[in-house]
């Protein structure tokens, strides 16, 4: 999925609590203890307390009371019901209008598309001030996959969509997303969603001041963090003297270690950080979904779960480690550090997704490309490359409407394009019994 650490910079906080040196990335040195003077009203304390708990799959874990947990479950259920009811209601309303106008044959093909478009604003029922940009972009990526599959089948657009049948398109998508995400993580963290940035902080293994130093060097800015970086290493028992005239940031990134030794030690620590992320991902479904099979063949099911945990942890730790290996290699070859080299060096990081099972690669790639797109458009809007974007108050609703229109159209006209698990969910939502002859495995369509 993605790489790196935790922590918010303490700007002007006067409380006596501390989260390491400005929080930073979790490399095992973050101080997560709370002093007696921990101020619950201080925003820095609030951020620090949250960052001390592990994040799984990019979402922050927060200690909640039973009442808060029940409230979150109720709110999430209400939001899901509102969106689902909006989609189903939009389809029904459009069907009624079509019948009243007696143009059923003309509108049947596009009825579901318009219904999805009309029902998209049901997201507003979740709250006028609650933005769901992450969700809407992820749904857009799923819609894009369906649209590409339609294009592959189409006689008109088949040749144009031929490149989308590439066997390793999921790996290429992951490389693209890695380049954007990791470059933004070093140079412009504010463009990343807060929860996802927290996930990157945790697994990046580097303190925020180190990233700031790399950013200053790549952007040809005056150094402001060299002393803080030296103090950070000194606190771990390593004496490092940084040169203000350095050309490459290796001494900032891994101190007195060589690039090779740093890669080995970082990988070991990264693997330890990755294991807790995937333990619940695989073990909980094993106990919930396969609870009956556990009594009949426990070794087979648990053994498969352990292998999957080891494989996914290897993927995440390799992803994080390779990000530093490739950039260090390029910096050493060209004897300089700049923004293009960071973007190029982080591109092959996505190759690590090949470690995962084929069935998981596309899901991971779509998740990451959605985060990358959000980061890219946020950055473009901030620098003024998207004029008029500030006038669009709810871009998530617009994106969600377009996405649901595509998905509903494919659901009505091209059901065989859906994987069985997604089709079963949609059939359950809309109350449509599956046809006994339908086998929507989508095995013959390999699309990005």
What does this 3D model show about the protein?
By secondary structure, the chain is mostly helical. It has 17 helices and 2 strands. It has a two-stranded antiparallel sheet. It is globular. The two termini are 17 Å apart. The relative contact order is 0.16.
Layout of strands and helices, then pairs:
Elements: H1 43-51, E1 55-56, E2 59-60, H2 66-100, H3 104-107, H4 111-119, H5 133-153, H6 169-187, H7 194-204, H8 208-218, H9 226-235, H10 250-254, H11 259-288, H12 291-296, H13 298-334, H14 339-346, H15 358-382, H16 395-413, H17 420-430
Antiparallel strand pairs: 1-2
Helix pairs in contact: 2-4, 4-16, 5-15, 5-16, 6-14, 6-15, 11-13, 13-14
Subcellular location: Endomembrane system
Keywords: Membrane, Transmembrane, Transmembrane helix
Domain Transmembrane protein 135 N-terminal: 258-378
Rg is 24 Å
Number of helices: 17
Uncertain regions: pLDDT < 50 for 5+ in a row? Answer: 1-64, 439-448
Total number of domains? 2
Q: Based on CA inertia axes, which overall geometry fits? A: globular
Largest sheet: 2 strands, antiparallel
Record field, number of beta strands = 2
The succession of helices and strands, N to C, reads HEEHHHHHHHHHHHHHHHH
Instruction: Give the overall average pLDDT.
Output: 74
- First-to-last CA distance: 17 Å
What structural class results from the helix and strand content? mainly alpha
| Strand order, sheet with most strands | 1-2
What proportion strand? under 5%
Residues in helices, as a percent range: 55-70%
